[in-house]
Specification:
single chain, about 220 residues, alpha/beta, TIM Barrel, two-stranded antiparallel sheet, about 25% helix, globular, binds the ligand O=C(O)c1ccccc1N[C@@H]1O[C@H](COP(=O)(O)O)[C@@H](O)[C@H]1O, N-(5'-phosphoribosyl)anthranilate isomerase, EC 5.3.1.24, TrpF_fam, isomerase activity, isomerase
């Protein structure tokens, strides 16, 4: 990709989240590369289910201040137990968690832990999407937009980013869903830019095994 395909406009420098990590050696390299957010998937049905590879103690010993746990329709008790034992700093709710659930979780969770609410974009109208976004804002810290799917996430499929120009986005947000080196230059069509890009399956050799060369290329593209 050539220099003029950089996605950044002016001084826009999104943070980077690399999700679906399972290998300690790769995690150490990503820490050294100063990746902003490390994502761990605590969803058993995912091919990137972290507990098939690492235990909670190993995750807790990873020295990083932005460890994100991705949960799909998990119970509050389990989320809290994993968060404490793995030393997570962010909870990403990637399933069909209701507002009541998030309020309850917020009350029981250590107040320093930030909540990222995922909005999966499918066939909903702009109005429906807007309503979902503005509900329950006081209990969450970030939004994350991903492509809707039966697998909940990790499909490598993008949604039409133009829809982000048709809604009000009241919180900083993560952009995810099939972000790749091939489509990243199209980010400039978005008016309110993402706080962080969230990359996953398009930067892998196999599920959970990241392609560090591609990630280095991404860093060169988005970090000035
Ligand atoms: O990656 C998974 O297997 C996964 C499973 C269930 C929920 C979320 C999952 N990953 C999240 O999906 C998005 C987008 O990933 P991709 O770039 O489309 O592969 C990302 O936020 C991951 O956190």
């Amino acid at each position: 990709m050539s220099e003029n395909q950089k996605p950044s406009t002016n001084n826009y420098q999104p943070k980077l989240k690399v999700c679906g990590l399972t290998q300690l050696n790769q995690i150490r390299e990503l820490v050294a590369l100063k990746i902003d957010f490390l994502g761990f998937i605590f969803y058993e049905k995912s091919p990137r289910y972290v507990l098939d590879h690492l235990n909670l103690d190993e995750i807790s010993k990873i020295s990083h201040h932005r460890k994100v746990g991705v949960f799909v329709n998990e119970s509050i008790n389990k989320i809290i137990e994993i968060t404490e034992q793995a030393g997570l700093n962010f909870i990403q709710l990637h399933g069909d968690e209701t507002d009541g659930f998030i309020i309850d979780l917020r009350q029981k969770l250590d107040p320093t832990i930030k909540i990222i609410k995922v909005i999966r974009i499918g066939n909903q109208s702009t109005n429906e999407l807007q309503k979902t976004i503005i509900q329950n804002l006081s209990t969450i810290n970030y939004l994350l937009f991903d492509t809707d799917s039966k697998a909940f996430g990790g499909t490598g499929k993008t949604f039409d980013w133009n829809i982000l120009n048709e809604i009000e986005i009241p919180l900083p947000y993560f952009l995810s869903g099939g972000i790749s080196l091939e489509n990243i230059h199209q980010l400039s069509i978005i008016n309110r830019q993402a706080f962080s890009l969230d990359v996953n399956s398009k930067f892998e050799l196999n599920p959970g095994i990241k392609d560090l060369e591609k990630i280095k290329e991404l860093i060169n593209l988005v970090k000035i």
